[in-house]
Specification:
Blueprint: E1 3-5, E2 15-22, H1 27-35, E3 44-47, H2 54-69, H3 78-85, H4 92-99, E4 108-114, H5 121-131, E5 135-137, H6 141-147, H7 150-157, H8 176-179, H9 189-204
Antiparallel strand pairs: 1-2, 2-4, 2-5, 3-4
Helix pairs in contact: 2-3, 2-9, 3-4
Length: about 210
């Protein structure tokens, strides 16, 4: 169920391949490939339980790719930068611990950035089929809503139940049109409030 996306305001030749998995059985193996720097596993492996929506994931992807194109990467490559871009602060090791795959992850979001002919949807799908021991599901807001741990997300982003950061300061939203990402057209009000606050943090962090 790999999806290949082309985000507006980015080069049309640059593709974003996204896959979502449940019931992951080999998280420790996949994480070790990242730790070993295995070039065959250049992916953003994200614990899907901390992703509130497709827009949340794609906004971080847009930021990371934009930083790549402008020589502003702070981490090793664009895939680690995607994980880092999810963070509300500039603590890189903390961002990998909070958002990256862990040995106990059961729901996995995989993002791969690349250009043909070196990287194609077929080559990405084939490699994931051979290496990820899990059940592929649709990358959709409905499925992410079943997965997300809202209490954990609120704690990471320091948000209360209404999606506000703290008691006095609301974080401004990130206009979807400005970064090529469209927000969900429907959905739970609480999720939408969290998403708006989180997108603002992604936009403002390090700006």
């Amino acid at each position: 169920m790999l999806q290949t996306l082309h985000l507006s305001h980015l080069p049309p030749s640059l593709a974003v391949h996204v896959a979502l998995y449940r019931n992951l059985q080999n998280a420790s193996f996949l994480r070790q490939q990242l730790l070993d720097g295995n070039s065959e596993f250049e992916y953003a492996f994200i614990d899907a339980s901390v992703i509130v929506s497709t827009t949340h994931a794609l906004a971080a992807t847009f930021r990371a790719v934009n930083d790549l194109l402008n020589d502003r990467l702070k981490s090793r490559n664009v895939h680690s930068e995607i994980v880092f871009s999810l963070s509300p602060n500039n603590n890189m090791s903390e961002s990998f611990r909070r958002f990256g795959i862990s040995n106990t992850s059961k729901d996995l979001l995989v993002i791969k950035v690349g250009t043909p002919p070196a990287i194609t949807p077929e080559s990405v799908q084939q490699h994931l089929d051979a290496t990820v021991d899990a059940t592929a599901v649709d990358f959709s807001d409905d499925i992410l809503l079943q997965i997300v741990d809202l209490a954990r997300v609120r704690k990471i982003y320091k948000l209360n139940n209404s999606g506000e950061a703290g008691k006095k300061c609301k974080v401004r939203s990130l206009d979807g049109a400005s970064n090529g990402i469209e927000g969900p057209k429907n959905g739970d009000g609480e999720i939408k409030a969290l998403e708006v606050a989180i997108l603002g943090m992604i936009a403002l962090r390090g700006a």
